[in-house]
Design goal:
alpha/beta, 10 strands, two-stranded antiparallel sheet, 11 helices, eight-stranded mixed beta sheet, single chain
């Protein structure tokens, strides 16, 4: 499926102040001076969340296999040859590695110091940083990837800041690619795992369905789940033009056993279905992950 927004929003201004307000978990707001230097801000809850998770491992099994291969496929359709790419929230370089192998110059930015250390050990250019205040000059990249930050920034203002920063560091005509998680995906995942019978889980799901995140205090609270139409509006509202949404895993993702390997027949079958539904209206709405493509003017 392709959803398109032909008009761009009015948000053309760039945030220039060195003082911004940063949300730290549920403890409220504190002001912080952003010195445009790596690591100036560390949202501790999110850093700890990812210290206990291996993104490369997640993408090497179950539906993660389809997510990884379809993300590659969709980006390769759009990215110009030999681009200079900033991979914001790029972890230890799970996407940067194949982009470099394809001939692109990639700089990975991530909040988690351990991720950056692993990326550097594998030969990648990487530095600690925050999606809301990128340590780069204006118009310095051909492509900006935000394949994680937008579903970890629960506050709409924080997401606007991340989108504004991505637009700022892109040259005119540069390619933006951002990822979101569909709000329905967490409901389907709970159903397939059998946890939806738990009243506590149901309370969390009810809040996610209503507001897009868990504010009950029982879950991690580290995720934000979009509706497709809202995601489209956010990216277009940031001033990107020709915005399109593409479904990643398609509607069959939840049928894939979570820990299966690439040779499981449902992996290839689900990928085939994802490619077919990419051309019809249910593609983005039925996928777990959605990619937004846009152009910086």
């Amino acid at each position: 499926m392709i959803l398109r927004a032909e008009v761009c929003g009015p948000a053309r201004e760039r945030l220039c102040s060195t003082v911004r307000w940063i949300r730290l978990g549920v403890s409220g707001f504190v002001s912080a001076t952003l010195m445009r230097m790596a690591g100036s801000i560390e949202p501790a809850g999110l850093v700890e969340y990812y210290r206990s998770r291996d993104e490369s491992l997640r993408l090497s099994r179950g539906e993660g296999l389809v997510e990884f291969e379809r993300t590659q496929h969709l980006i390769r359709q759009m990215i110009p040859p030999t681009s200079r790419v900033v991979d914001v929230g790029g972890g230890d370089g799970v996407h940067a590695r194949w982009l470099v192998a394809d001939g692109h110059e990639v700089v990975t930015v991530d909040l988690v110091p351990e991720h950056i250390e692993r990326a550097r050990r594998s030969g990648l250019s990487a530095q600690v940083g925050d999606a809301r205040s990128l340590p780069f000059i204006d118009s310095s990249f051909d492509v900006a990837l935000l394949l994680g930050p937008l579903y970890h920034l629960r506050d709409a203002g924080d997401r606007r800041m991340a989108l504004s920063e991505a637009k700022r560091v892109l040259r005119p005509g540069g390619l933006f690619v951002g990822a979101a998680i569909n709000r329905t995906a967490v409901l389907v995942d709970a159903l397939r795992k059998g946890s939806i019978a738990d009243p506590g889980v149901c309370a969390v799901l009810e809040r996610i369905a209503l507001i897009g995140h868990d504010d009950t205090g029982t879950g991690s609270g580290a995720m934000y789940f979009h509706r497709s139409e809202d995601f489209l509006a956010e990216v277009a509202g940031a001033g990107f033009t020709d915005v399109r949404l593409r479904g990643v895993e398609g509607p069959a993702w939840a049928l894939i056993p979570p820990d299966c390997t690439a040779d499981h027949p449902l992996v290839e079958q689900a990928r085939f279905v994802a490619e077919l539904t990419d051309e019809i209206d249910s593609g983005a709405a039925s996928s777990s992950h959605v990619l937004a493509f846009g152009t910086a003017d």
